[in-house]
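job 3f2a | input accepted
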Amino acid sequence: MGTRFKSSLEQTLALNTWVKLSRAKESVGRQLQPCLGQYGVTRPQFGVLEMLYHLGTLNQTVIGKKLLVSGGNVTMLVDNLEKHSWVERRRSTRDRRVIMVHLTSAGKAIIEQVLPMHVEALTSALAVLTLTERETLGMLCKKLGRGQMNDPIGTG
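job 3f2a | predicted structure (156 res):
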């Protein structure tokens, strides 16, 4: 579907690319949700659990930067994960102002249950692309995500 916005070819291409990228993300996300939903985990909650599982204890600021969400959103996510006893907050021993988020044994158990099914659903959702196309898409997304920004915490 073309745009009715009067613009240059470069602007039209940027707008159309953005729409396609957004729709692709939502489409894949919808395919992944049933896997997460059966465990009562939302996509953002899964992002936090997976991050803590792979990277270990992190402070809330780092979690927000890696998930590209606000501090308030991280607080809400961690609050909800705490209600399930999947994470717990602890003050940093080095700087009491810093709140560290730890994965609990219950959190580890849930991520270890959900992660294999999530990976399988993701693999299925991306199966419409060849392996080469997936690799190219990954490189393009990384390049786009980094843009002109410095990436001091390795979000790419």
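job 3f2a | The first strand starts at residue 58 and ends at 59.
job 3f2a | closed
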